[in-house]
Amino acid sequence: MTLFEGLPREEVDRISTLVHAQRYACGEVIFHRGDIATTLHIIRKGQVSIRLSSSDGKEVILSLLQRGDFFGETSLLDGAPLSTDAVARGEVDVLRLQRRDFQHYLSTRPQVALGLLTTLSRLVRQVTQRIHDTSFLDARTRLERVLLELARHFGSPGEGGTTISQKFTQTELANLCGLTRESTNKWLRTFVRDGWVRYEGGDITLVQEPRLEDEWLGLNRP
After folding, report:
1. Helix (H/G/I), strand (E/B), else coil: 57
2. Distance CA 147, CA 141 (A)
3. Which of 103, 126, 169, 177 is deepest in the core (most CB within 10 A)?
4. Which of 18, 219, 196 has its CA nearest to residue 104?
5. In 109-138, which residue ranges form alpha helices assigned H by DSSP?
6. Mean pLDDT across the stretch 49-54?
7. HSE of 1 in the Cβ direction (CA atoms, 13 Å)?
8. Torsion angle, CA of 151/217/60/52, rounded to 10 degrees?
């Protein structure tokens, strides 16, 4: 559900007069953890990484957002500093809605509030899953989970398996898993050697074999 889904056309037209477009280059930081939020961002084109980073350069990617997703909303609600970084992954176009306009629509449009609650619930589940994985799963299983989730969100099924349409570097995969690049590379090479995964020029294909599907889907059952 998108944030403004269900609003009458005239309301959508009115919102369009309140937002302002902005473009970010690949790798550009949209905001830093600790910044004061003044704007809701809605992605019109491209992808944005929501991440945590440490002073020694370590990073963990909490989520990858794409067209139609929005971010920066939590700090607009409570007035607290932003808790994550947001970074453009490739060239990104966003629509920016100022805090006063966002809060007005949130207080007067139940559909908007429902869309926000849905997204916040998803974020809580993602963070809880990440804490669980980091605390209880080994490196191999964490990489398996991430590959499966990427296939679900960005996968294109074909005769040879499901190809993840977006290219991911080993560093990005490591950040998504909360692992070192060396550990991620080790297990990725193991999956390739065992014929479970093809990894060529940054393209990742999950080979559709029963043992692969049974093992990975089993990890995601309630």
Report:
1. coil
2. 10
3. 177
4. 18
5. 110-136
6. 90
7. 17
8. 90
Residue type, 52: L
Other CB atoms within 10 Å distance of the CB of residue 78: 8
Residues 6+ apart with CB under 8 A from 167: 202, 203
Q: What global pTM score does this model have?
A: 0.78
Separation CA 43–CA 46 (nearest Å): 7
pLDDT digits (tens, 9 = 90+) for 60-106: 898 899 998 889 888 777 878 999 999 999 999 999 999 888 888 78
Paired tokens of 30: 């949209």
- SS3 category, 7: coil
Residue pointed to by tokens 């994985």? 133
Asked if residues 146 and 190 have their Cβ atoms less than 8 Å apart, the reply is no
Single-letter amino acid, residue 198: R
41 and 86 Cβ atoms separated by less than 8 Å: yes
